[in-house]
Amino acid sequence: MVIHTEHSVAVSAAPDVLFDLIGDVTRWPAIFGPTVHVEHMHRAPGTERFQLWALAGDEVKTWVSRRTLDGVRRHVTFEQERTQAPIASMSGSWTFHPAGGGTEVVLTHDFTAVDAAHEDRLTSIVDSNSNRELAALRRVAEIGHPVADVVVTFEDEIPLDGSAEDAYVFIDRSDLWPQRLPHVARVRLLDPQPGVQDMEMETTTADGGTHTTRSIRLCFPSDRIVYKQLVPPELLLGHSGSWHLRKGEDGDVATARHTVVINPDAVAKVLGPDRTLADAREFVRGALGANSRTTMAHASAYAGQLAVLGGPS
After folding, report:
1. Among 72, 307, 36, which residue's Cα sits nearest to residue 167?
2. In the predicted structure, residue 192 carries a pLDDT above the cut 70
3. Mean pLDDT, residues 71-78
4. Mean pLDDT over all residues of the chain?
5. In degrees rounded to 5, what are phi and psi of residue 179?
6. What DSSP string runs through 105-152?
7. pTM score, whole prediction
8. Fewest CB within 10 angstroms: 48, 74, 101, 289, which?
């Protein structure tokens, strides 16, 4: 049986703003609660194909989707080409209708389950994720600042003293970071599924304070680990990132990439009453970049030591 659902929300923003937010799936992990990671497999004008990892309840599920994007009609259709049980098929659409000076966003799903026993649970998950996605979309679109000022991506890169494979091991074993990294006070690391890590980390800030974050990490041995923070620090509404360890022409290289959604309402509380959104962007870039460079430097030293000693790789 094909189950049809429809969810909608009224947003005080122009249709084009909302279409652009939905159109760029690379920003979804930082914006939408359920989305953990997206990797494009094909992109062309008006169409794309990608693999997406998302939380479905307390599990990480992954599938391959194809989308068509019509910027004139502001209409997006999607269909899962490769599903994961208990989903047998899934398709749907996003539409953006001008309404009362804003936009009505409508998200539909048409899906089947592998058997009738899973239909109620799947419907519940689709309802929950749809409502969370629409709420997050409205929150970012109505934030009172241009999207480009609050959704920011940046990266840092360093050469490695040893192999990318050994540096990957250092990043993977985050349970050892409190003994290895000066800015990490505590880590609780769980492995709920193969290739999936649930990491809670307490980080020491430059002023001596601490904050606790929780992330879902996807591990792709031995060249990259991607993550999405489920509990970001107060200044951020969302944060996703990645560690890439790769071979280069002049030696192996590590890259740390971040996409963040800054919370303008928290700027004064966290940074001070006279600080601006531009100050917040600079602060976040500096703090996250410094921690990433420190982590990569220690991963490089670890890999370099193993290279000298003739270690694992």
Report:
1. 307
2. yes
3. 96
4. 95
5. -90, -15
6. EEEEEEEEESSGGGHHHHHHHHHHHHHHHHHHHHHHHTSSS-HHHHEE
7. 0.92
8. 101
